[in-house]
Amino acid sequence: MKKLFTLALISSAVAFSPFAFSSSTSDKIDKDYQQHLGPLWDHFHQNPELSLMEFKTAKRLATELRTVGFTVTENVGGTGIVALMKNGEGPTVMVRADMDGLPVVEASGLTNASTVITKDWNGKEVGVMHACGHDVHITSLVGTARHMASIKSQWSGTLMLIGQPAEEMGPGASAMMADNLWQRFGKPDYAFAFHVGSGIEAGKIVVDEGSPYAGADTVDIIVHGIGAHGAYPHRGKDPIVIGAQIVNNLQTIISRELAPRYPGVITVGSFHAGTKHNIISDRAHLQLTVRSLTPEVREQLLSAIKRIAIGTARTAGMPEDKLPEVNVSEFAYPPTFNDKALAKRLKEVLTDKMGDLALIEPSATGMGAEDFGFFTTKPYIPSVYFGVGGTPAADFKREAKGGAAVPSHHSPLFKITPEPAVKAGVEATVHALLDIMNKQ
After folding, report:
1. How far is 137 from 429, CA to CA, in rounded Å?
2. Helix crossing, 25-32 with 134-150: angle to 10°?
3. Which residues lie below 8 Å from residue 229, measured CB to CB, with a gap of 6+?
4. Is there a catalytic annotation at residue 419?
5. Angle (nearest 5°) at CA 275 between 271 and 281
6. What count of other Cβ atoms lies within 10 Å of the Cβ of residue 381?
7. Portion of the chain with pLDDT greater than 70, in percent
8. What's the average model confidence in pLDDT over 420-424?
9. Does position 167 have pLDDT exceeding 60, yes or no?
10. Phi, psi of 51 (to 5 degrees)
11. Residue from 333, 370, 385, 427 carrying the catalytic annotation
12. Which bin fits 410, alpha (ψ -120 to 50), beta or left (φ > 0)?
C-alpha cells in the first residue's frame, strides 16, 4: 500500500496572487510554481514525517491555507486538517491530499534528498522519505487553494480541503471520519483526489471510470503443530510443513475458484516459525494481504482462505482442538470506486481545457489499495480519484532500451519530477472544481 524555506506570510489573497497579469490557468499555475510551489515542494520533500507524526507538515499546510483565506481546523482525527472557504451558494466540494512519508532511507540521488532520521512508533531509529509522492499531493493542494482563492468571482459554493494523515499506515481517513468529520464540517456533494505515479509520464492525467484502487484485508493464520525433536518427526506434527502446504493451496483460490474475469490477489507476505535447527516447532504464523474489488469477491476469498487453512491441517491429521486460527483484521480498506458519470464529465473537461494529449488511458497496474474510500463509501459521495504522471518520457525510453529501470513507489530510489507533476495536479483539480462550482 507510499509522499513532496522560509515564507513571508501575506495577509490577503489579492496581495499574494501572482495571477493578475497572466492570461491562462496554466500560465498562472506555472508562475506560482516558480515563485512559491517549487520551493514549497522542496521543503516538504526534505522534511518528511511518518504516519501519525505529521505535526510540522500539518502545521505548515495549515499556515499555507490560512494565508490565502481559508478557515482551518487542526488536529482532526489526529494530525488531520480541514480547511473551508465559503463563497456563496453552491455545492460543497472536497479535495483531499495525504501528508505522510515512509520509513525508508532515501537513495534517490536528488540534491534535496531527505536526510531525516527519527524514531518510529516502536522507538526504533529509521530514515524517512516521501517515497510515494505525498509531497506532490500536499504541494498541489496548496497550489489549488491559492488559485481558487485568487479567482473567487468565477465560482460559488464551499471548497473543503483536507490534509489527511496516515494513509500509509491505514487509519488516517477512518480516524478523521471517526472524529465526526461530516457532522462537524458538512458532508461534501462531490470529492476529488489524485495520486502521482512513477509509472505515468510526467504531466499526463489518467482518469479511470471504474475502480483505480482495490479493497485490502489483512489476514493472520496461526498454524498449530505438535512439537518434537527434529530427528523424530513422526512423534509430532510439523506446522512448517502444514503452513507450506497452506501457502501452496491458497494459490488455487485465484486460479481455480475465482471466475477469470473477476480480479483478486492473495499474497503471503510473511511466514514465521521455529527457533532452532533440530526442533519441530508447535506454531507457525502466516501474514496475508488480500485484495478485491467487490464485496462478493472479498467474501469469497476470505471464506476460501479459512476453509483451505483448516482443511489442510485436518488432512495432516491435526486434532480438532488444534486447527488453524484464521483472523481477519477489523480494519480493512474499501475499494476506491470512481463515480462513472463524474469521471466521464471530468475527462471531457480536462480534454477541453488541457488538450487531447493531456489524458492517457489507464493501464493494468496491479491491485494497490487506498483509504480514500473511507470518505466516499458510507455515505456515498460522487467522487473521482485520478492519476498524475511524475516520470519523464525519456526515462521510460531509456528503460525500454535496457537502461536503468524507473523506480517504483516505496523504493529508496523513488523520485518524481516535481514541476510537471505539481502543475498538472493543480491544473486538473482547478478545472474539475470550476466545472462543478461554476458560478453560471
Report:
1. 11
2. 120
3. 235, 278, 279, 280
4. yes
5. 75
6. 18
7. 94
8. 97
9. yes
10. -55, 135
11. 333
12. left
Q: What is the pLDDT of residues 280-320, one digit of tens each?
A: 999 999 999 999 998 899 999 999 999 999 999 999 999 99
Residue owning grid cell 500536499: 138
At 288, the amino acid letter reads L
Rounded Cα distance between 414 and 71, Å, is: 34
Q: Kindly report the backbone phi and psi dihedral angles of residue 200, in degrees, each rounded to the nearest multiple of 5, phi listed first.
A: -120, 140
Which cell goes with 71?
Answer: 478557515
Q: The C-alpha cell of 429 is what?
A: 483539480
Cell 478485491, residue?
292
Residue 12 Cα to chain centre, angstroms: 33
**Cβ proximity of 331 and 171 under 8 Å:** yes
Grid coordinates belonging to 299: 467474501
Q: Which helix (H) or strand (E) holds 351?
A: helix 340-354
Quick one: pLDDT band at residue 135, thresholds 50, 70, 90? very high
H or E element in which residue 250 lies: helix 239-252
The Cα 11–Cα 261 span in angstroms is 56
Rounded Cα gap, residues 209 and 201, in angstroms: 20
